[in-house]
Amino acid sequence: MRKKGIYRSAGYETLLISMVVFTLIFAFAHAAFADSKRGIDDKSVTIGISAPLSRLLAEAGQASVDCYQAYFKYVNEVKGGVNGRKIKLVVTDHQYEPSRSLANFKRLVVRDQAMAVISWGTPASTILIKPAMEEKVPLIAMSGGRDLYIPSKRYVVAFATPWEFQSVATVTYIIDKLGDKNPKIGLFYNNDDFGRSGKAGIELAAKHYGFEILSEAPHITGSPVDKAAVTNFKKAGVKYVMVGAHSGDVSSLLLEMKSQGLDCDVFGVLAPSSDPKIIEQAGEAAKRYHSVDQQGRWTDTKAPGIQQMIDITKKYGFVNHMNEKSWYYTSAWGPALMIEEALRRAGKDLTVEKFVDALDTFNNWETGDSNPPITLNPKRRISCIGSIIVKADLEQKDLLPVSGWIMPPRDVAKTVLGE
Amino acid sequence: MTSFQYFIQLLIDGVTTGFIYSLVGLGFVIVFKSTKILNLAQGEFMMAGAYVTMAFYNVLRLPFLAAFGLALIAGYFLGFVVDRVFLRRMVGAPIFAVVMLTVGLSVLLRGLVGLIWGHDERTIAVPLFHQIVKAAGFSINFGSILVIVLCLALVIGFGLFYKFTKTGTSMRATATDTNSAMVMGIDISRVFSVSWGLSSLVSVFSGVVLASITIIKPGMADFGLKALPAVILGGIDSILGVILGGIIVGIMENFIGGYIGGMAQQLSPYVILLVVLIIKPYGLFGTKEIERL
Amino acid sequence: MEKGFALPRARKRYYSRDYGQELQLFRTTSQKVWLVALLALVVCFPLLLDRYTCYIATLALAAVIGSIGLNILTGYTGQISIGHGAFVGVGAYSYALILAKTSLPFWLAIPLAGAISGILGILIGVPALRMRGLYLAMATVAFHLIMDQVVMNWESLTGGYQGLDVPNATLAGYAVKSEAAIYYVTLFFTIALTIGAGNITTSKIGRAFCAVRDRDLAAEAIGISLVKYKILAFFISSVYAGVAGALMALCLGRISPYDFGLIVSIAYISMIIVGGAGSIFGSIIGAVLITLLPFGLSSASDLIQPYYPSITTKFGDVKTLAYGLIIIVFLIWEPEGLAGRWRKVTAYFRNWPFTY
Fold first, then answer.
1. Using the beta-carbon criterion (under 8 Å), do A234 and B1 form an inter-chain contact?
2. pLDDT tens, A359-414?
3. Distance from CA of B221 to the nearest CA of A (A)
4. Which residues, in sequence order, are CB contacts of B102 under 8 Å at separation 6+?
5. Does the ipTM exceed 0.90?
6. Pick among 3.40.50.2300, 3.50.30.10, 3.90.1800.10, 3.40.640.10: CATH of A44-161+301-359
7. Rounded to whole angstroms, how far apart are CA atoms C64 and C283?
8. Enclosing domain of residue B195
């Protein structure tokens, strides 16, 4: 590169040196934002949300945000806030881009003075681990990503049941409830976050229970189901098809199985595959469809937590999610309850540290059966380990529970959580 | 299932997948044939067509054929309007600018659809689509047969249209040499608008077909890009080519999936695309462009 | 040549009396004054802005580097590439892996990441020699999608969808972590690479690029080796993209394939469209605008939020809509981008009152 031109006219070396000097100066000037009363005043506490509100998984983000808004409105209006403080929500959109998620986090903490941040989505949450720990900002991640809770970090809490436990629960159900000791299993999984976690879980189960996965079929999210996958299943003589995919792909698979004449029990191994839309889309083909779930169902009105959720949703006008029986909406219910309870436990003179300490005090805390019992302590940073199996009911057009909360076997829990 | 049966099943499945690719790719070809523009928004036109059909069918509760017919008209209209409003002003612009315009259009359409209908996943239950026909131990979806029949009908229809009708002939003339066509008195702007409208019409077909196989959500537009390998392999301005290209890509993809499996299958269409572009960019039946100084 | 005759200011900018003058990037005094002012402002940014804005500014600077790279390839050499995001991603992952697996300092890792990306660019450039226009665009799209899948699946190397942690950069034992420090590092590379690009484009190489863009067969006929210059263009643009990716990795702290999808390639192309193809100044403007656009729109939606609370959930689609609309509007009405518009405006004033 010929630098003759600029080299003569501007002080190129001066520029270079000043850059290095500035970098050195600011390398030391690392101001953490550990303000202990950030976002808290006598009347309100500010909580920020970063969720995908457009493009990929926008339906998930929109539903979750609406749920938080409904519940916190209820808390503010009916209960007068928590310890006299109203909860103020600031919502940002990360469009499922981690760089955007980091920008949202900085904005929420620096500009909006959020005390805590809720984040939706695995890549969007994992990018926030470092900043949350450095800035001492409580991060409540709605995702089951392993890096969030292993190793355990003080300021990071994941609200989910680990994916592996969910998949293992399906196998536990097959072996214990259905009594099939050596199941012939075929695995269909999406080639992304969800799918691969499901695959990992089934492989763990295979190791624990001692059987082999007969046929595996990866799949690109959203594209038509590869017919070869189903043909391979038929060829291998599979009796249980385990699916690790989003609802749309699950229904495509069910339809494809029907069209190729493969009639056997199908188990969705990850909670999002319990979406009742699958029954709507697949119709008759969903007759033998089961799924695992990590939370309660809209139609389970016997559960007090679910009934409360339905009432509050109706009251604040988010009925579209209720009519769709949105899974993502329900998934935000648990964390909302947990946040309110933690704020309450932190007491009248709330600080950030007290909130985090309060989060550590949950021990099998019941949520009215809307979610599995929540346990959090300094070693356990993922809220739930229970799962429930639901089965398709074509008249109700939903999946209904056919089991209680299934906990993973001891050694599987140890492998995953390391405790 | 014997390995011969497996082979034949894969073949059948490959052909049906291939025809879906061809159906989607037909839209690309029709536009390119007349205007030499690669419409990267084809997937979004398809998505818009599916949403409009869903709106007519689910929301307004019209009988399926009526909803479909209305959607076809709306699709034609959409293509026509796109040409008049946007592409009219790009006449004479470098090809890069026009292709980027279609990319901009695709982003615009996605945002619009998301805004109007939201991101929730919807379904559309096309009657008759999912019954199974069993023959000699092989099963094939009635819907797949419908797709093949539809595709062939469209291809034959377009072939006849191009060869025998006045509009079709003028479209072919415009494609061969725009200036001469103008000299001969053909209304070029009308030809362009008609070809965009027709391509959009075909997209509505493929959108509905795709919607009945998977679900309707704004992300379904990504399937448009998946049809590119079929289009390029066959030759981007050849209708016969897109059929053959689609079938070949579909069969190869299914065989790779059946015998090698996994990631190789997902990658194979794009690898095929790259290989074709490197070796024989004009495809099997495309017209070769000779670059002159 | 007479030494005594000094060219008037305006003439100095457009007419040169020797080759040395021709190569100067900033010729007139007023240009130099503006340059110093801009640099002073940019250097003081971290002192004036809060940490969030500092972070966004860093993202914008990294985008500037990438956009200059793409402009060299597409604007100057005419090779349409919609796969730029893949090179950025390669740079980012290379940086993270170099820091993780070797003990090289970060200021060495960044150029090295650029070099790795550059080598990939050469590998792509070779088959790209055979293709032109539309077909090249499609090939680059296919390449990008393939790279996407490779990164997602090669979990042992890239961590798959979970992403890869980027180890902290250290300078003499102290961690370069704060937004301001990262900003200065990025600023340093941006300035250095911008000047480099300016020099490249005004030199023989730049002229050869333009010749290839305008009429490549004719260029070959007069002796400009297409092979050499096309591959060189791919190399340079990938190096720039790689450095941009490495800086992004430094800035983000953790990278995953979701940051480097087809959306990113489209974003870079729109930066060039909005800014102006074939102009370094244009790529800078385009990069800054397109990077800041979503944040600006979010601020706008926040203003409306008190009056219309449910707008936030819908606003994402409005952003997408606005983005597409901007691309279309610029292509139809401002095909030369903002740099072109700037050129026309200054030409008007320069020639006033003689507009023709």
1. yes
2. 888 888 887 777 888 888 888 888 888 888 888 888 877 888 888 788 888 777 77
3. 10
4. B37, B38, B39, B40, B41
5. no
6. 3.40.50.2300
7. 7
8. 23-224+231-239
